[in-house]
Specification:
Heat Shock Protein 90; 2 domains; 5-stranded mixed β-sheet; alpha+beta; rod-shaped
Length: 342
């Protein structure tokens, strides 16, 4: 369920805040005179009439004037409205003061009303400003989230065609030899791309699904590279149902196979570790590395896949201040250490 923003919460309770404000305005004179002999001399109907005439210009300002972009050209109109409202307020008030000489109090009463309108308008301008501030914040957050989601979708969509074509060629060769492993390889390739196309589009997947995808990928690469690599995979997961963003780890493993495949000789080690404990997820990948051989990588493999650069960007978007990524290149070893707070 989507959590309400501060702006949404404010909109929900706003009618109650308005009601509370006007209730305080209505009852304040009675509270002020509480305990005094005779109490507040004005009738309750007198206060209701005053409340009506005070609220009309206040809400005219709140609902119409404050949202206007060009307020300056309407100032005279607002002032005229205040004066007309004060005039009618005065004559409505005379029904409660028949014994008084109203001509002596007319201007004093109208000026008092105008000051009251301005005061209440300032109070509601503060409310309007707070609402506008939170609305702007919500708009910025929504725009940021939409931008991040678009970036993440673009990053996750970069499926590695080199891996697909080479694996299919390898499966084809196995099929020609009538290798018994062919059906299993087809199933793993199918599962791998089903994961990318379906699970990979989700915001979160369980750790066991992500690791299952990694295992399928490693198995397919081991079959493709045959005796070229020697993969060690260590798994120590305490809560396999804990969730993590999909397709975060594959680029590092893909990178390990990419750079190991160009080395001469056999049994080049690739070490992969995945460990989770409570809210901490730890990933480690190590492979032999020869910087001088990078130019020998096929162009279509070098440019395909999500890549480490884009994975760093995904981590920044998905786990800001919740991850630590360390990449080391020394002693002909390429090491990746990633820790994520889930």
């Amino acid at each position: 369920m989507k959590k309400d923003s501060t702006y949404d919460k404010l909109k929900k309770i706003e009618p109650l805040l308005h009601l509370l404000f006007w209730l305080i305005v209505l009852l304040f004179p009675y509270i002020k005179y509480l305990g005094r002999e005779g109490g507040y001399p004005m009738s309750f109907s007198h206060e209701l009439v005053a409340l009506l005439f005070n609220s009309i210009p206040t809400y005219m300002m709140y609902l119409w004037f404050f949202p206007l972009k060009n307020k300056r050209k309407y100032i005279l109109l607002v002032l005229l409205f205040f004066i007309v409202n004060a005039f009618f307020h005065y004559y409505a008030d005379t029904f409660f003061h028949l014994e008084e000489n109203h001509k002596d109090h007319r201007w004093r009463s109208m000026i008092s009303s105008l000051v009251t309108y301005i005061t209440f308008s300032l109070v509601f301008f503060a409310v309007f400003s707070v609402k506008k501030l939170y609305a702007k914040q919500l708009e910025l957050e929504t725009t940021k989230q939409e931008k991040q989601q678009a970036e993440l979708s673009a990053l996750k969509a970069q499926v590695n065609p080199h891996f697909l074509f080479n694996t299919l060629n390898n499966i084809y060769a196995n099929a020609l030899r009538k290798d018994d492993k062919t059906p299993d390889l087809i199933l793993k390739l199918s599962d791998s791309f089903r994961y990318v196309l379906h699970e990979g589009q989700k915001k979160q997947v369980t750790i066991d699904k992500e690791i299952g995808h990694i295992k399928d990928y490693i198995s397919l690469q081991e079959e493709r590279l045959s005796t070229k690599v020697n993969v060690s995979f260590v798994e120590d997961i305490h809560d396999s149902q804990k969730e993590i963003a999909p397709l975060l780890l594959i680029p590092f493993i893909e990178n390990a196979f990419k750079y190991t495949s160009i080395l001469k000789g056999n049994k080049h080690p690739i070490k992969v570790k995945t460990i989770s404990d409570k809210n901490q997820f730890y990933f480690y990948c190590e492979n032999t590395y020869n910087k001088d051989k990078i130019s020998e990588i096929e162009t279509n493999w070098k440019e395909s896949g999500i890549g480490i650069k884009n994975t760093k960007k995904r981590l920044q978007l998905l786990y800001p201040k919740q991850h630590q990524l360390l990449i080391e290149e020394n002693d002909n070893l390429f090491k990746v250490t990633l820790t994520i707070t889930l």
